[in-house]
Amino acid sequence: KIGEWEVSQSASAKALIEAANYLKAKDIPVAFPTETVYGLGADATRAAAVKGIYSAKGRPSDNPLIIHVPDLDMLRHVLQPTANNGATNGSHDHIPEIYKPLIERFWPGPLTILMPNPIPSRLAPEVTAGLKTFGVRMPASPLARSLIKLVGAPLAAPSANASTKPSPTTAAHVLEDLDGRIELILDGGSCPVGVESTVVDGLCDPPVVLRPGGVSIDELRECPGWKNVEKAYKDHSESGKAAPRAPGMKYKHYSPKARVVLYEATYPDLHKGVDQQALELKDDSNLVGVIRTRQWGMGGGFSCGDFNGQEKLVAPLEPDSQPGVELEVREADLYKSLDGATIGKLLDISIGKDSRSIAHGLFSALRELDRRGADIIFVEGTLDDEDIGAAVMNRLRKAASQIKS
Ligand code: TXA
Ligand code: MG
């Protein structure tokens, strides 16, 4: 069945109806596109269906899921305690005031907000993993919203990757991770944003960002009540003792198979970093991946600095590659500069200069280098830490850290 979906570029109404009927009848989740990344969806009101998500992904059961709604009516419905069935209190819609400017400005779009979970709740307890709140967003993708409308219930959906892998931004990525574990993928092409939604908690004072994502902290600050929003995620070190506020942030994440080496700082540091790492390379048949953002104006060659004390690993590069939607992998020989002996291949990907295109290409590039069997991946960070670049750096720091769950 998966084959039929794979080939369809834009899911037809028929495909959507089939997927919706499947979600209503079965307890196996369906992967679907959103503007951020692909989600692995199940009816959030049915416990058996939600359990199916955790088992397909291999996700720890204490990591809550966010729910997706197509419109505010569905959100209002979820916010009503079930005991109160149908009896809406006209003057109060249960949406906390603090969120109204965000909803107005960013929905539908890549922003997840935490809401108080009513008691008793329509949501299966597995969605919230025992927390008193649930995360919710209204995705911008019309395809995603149509699917949820057809199901007639909110869809709980984490990113559709196997736990610990980079989030999928194409249907092929989903298939790579979940083939044999799910039966349906709705293929909506590649996800325009490329990193997950920003998760915020406005139920505390000051409000906080739990995960940086598609909506930047600067944009949040422009909204009434959000001027003093704080970051509640760890950026540079994951070793702190305080328990992370978003349970998912404590797990190993975004990790390709290859070791990832991230250059955070300036150009000279890049050389220093490579020196140390290069020494651990095999002697021949190395496959070295490089993901460039070209924000640092790197020249025409990639240099690995000192190798075994004296020699250099260098590879020629074409100076200009187009930052683009399509991933282009350049191959070059990797050789020791002094004796010129080839000791492997360099796989070089440019994902663009501006932070939007970097975000769009990042997970794809990590996965592509993995697929080609890279031994090590060198990544240039972005300099821009407030825009969507904050989300990019957050994901890269996790990919480059050795932290295990
Ligand atoms: O863009 C996205 O948000 C994608 C697409 C599919 O919508 N979804 C996604 O879901 O990234 P997931 O499960 O991979 O990440 C959700 C994050 C996790 O870090 C989780 O711990 C946190 O949100 N989260 C969910 N519910 C929460 C809650 N009630 N309190 C605190 N954190 C919560
Ligand atoms: Mg995820």
From TrEMBL:
Subcellular location(s) of the protein: Cytoplasm
Q: Name one GO cellular component term.
A: cytoplasm
Q: What is its main location?
A: cytoplasm
User: What sort of enzyme, by top EC class, is this?
Assistant: transferase
Q: Give the Gene Ontology MF terms in alphabetical order.
A: ATP binding; double-stranded RNA binding; L-threonylcarbamoyladenylate synthase; tRNA binding
Domain of life according to the entry: Eukaryota
From its record, what is one biological process in GO terms? Answer: tRNA threonylcarbamoyladenosine modification
Q: Which UniProt keywords apply?
A: ATP-binding, Cytoplasm, Nucleotide-binding, Nucleotidyltransferase, Transferase, tRNA processing
- The residue ranges crossing the membrane are none
Is ATP-binding tagged as a keyword? yes
Q: Where is the YrdC-like domain?
A: 13-215
EC assignment: the record states 2.7.7.87
Among InterPro entries, the record links this protein to: DHBP_synth_RibB-like_a/b_dom (IPR017945), Sua5-like_dom (IPR006070), Sua5/YwlC_C (IPR038385), Sua5_C (IPR005145), TC-AMP_synthase_SUA5 (IPR050156)
- Role: Required for the formation of a threonylcarbamoyl group on adenosine at position 37 (t(6)A37) in tRNAs that read codons beginning with adenine. Likely catalyzes the conversion of L-threonine, HCO(3)(-)/CO(2) and ATP to give threonylcarbamoyl-AMP (TC-AMP) as the acyladenylate intermediate, with the release of diphosphate. Required for normal translation, by ensuring translation fidelity at the level of codon recognition, appropriate translation initiation selection and maintenance of reading frame. Also involved in telomere replication.
Family, according to the entry, reads as follows:
Belongs to the SUA5 family.
> What is the protein's given name?
Threonylcarbamoyl-AMP synthase
Where does this protein come from, organism-wise?
Xylaria multiplex
